[in-house]
Amino acid sequence: MFEELRELGFVVITVAFERTVEDAREWIDAAAPTHPSLIDTTWSIADLYHVENVPTVFWIDEEGRIVRPQDVAFGSNMFQDFTGIDADVHQAALRSWVRGETAALAPEAVERHLRVPTEADQLARAEFGLGRWLWEQGRAEAARAHFQRAEELAPNLWTCWRGSMRMQDEDPMGELFFEKMTAYRGEGGVMARVIVD
Amino acid sequence: MDQTSLLSLIHNDGVSAIEARIAGRRMLIEPTMLEAVTGWHRRPEGLCRGEVCVPVRDTAAIDGPDGTVDLVGVAALLGRPFVVDAEAGTAYLGEAALDRAAMLRSQVAPEFTLPDLAGRHHSLSEHRGKKVFFVAWASW
To answer: What is the reported pTM?
Structure first.
């Protein structure tokens, strides 16, 4: 995707939050990307960039500044029925920015749309991080209590509660996921925040 | 210190084996260990790292017996989340919400280095001078 934009000084960088490098291999191999496709087995980027759900995208300009904070974009409309998001809208805006036809967001707009973590979010990430480490050490049972605590602290952090489902032998696309998603949205929770500017 | 146990302390830069004494809700460690793991050290004027010092008003919350410091108190003073699982011999020192927020509000994209499938490391800063579409995703 976006191959035609490469000569304009544009790069796509993807980061996948995965238990192991192997979890991502088949997906990345199938896409055969030419851009850096990175694996984050400690969810460090979720913490650093306050990524609440996936996919989340950022636009970063030539000087390394965030010119579009956490936004939602899809590569295709495969999930449009589920998400209600038309992938073409973001893609058109991105192309226009890369070609220099439109400016990215002004700093005031970036500030307005930027999402930053609360203390509960960071405590949840610490619980998740401890659980993830225990899981990696083969201590899945000890990990479970920490994943559950993270979920209680920050149900808005899908990267934690949904991201830990496989480490709890649960299906992230299974019945339990849909139950939790429905409950969360029923309480006014947001699954995907799309920037409209 | 007596009755110390060896714990795995997970933090931003990795995992450190630390000797600690868990006493009630406190986790007492040697100040040298605190500095090695966090960069902060206990000075008469407060808790310091580089040129920055945070005053310690409630010394009882930070200082333990025999010149030790309480990591639970230090984390609280710095606003950093700290989770201890004594049974599992593990603790996690996270990053302060205020620090994370300040970094993002500066609108400078935080630097990172991560491996690709082949194990080759890439940093964001390698792409300075280009427009970057940065995508966080997962196979799940």
So the answer is: 0.95
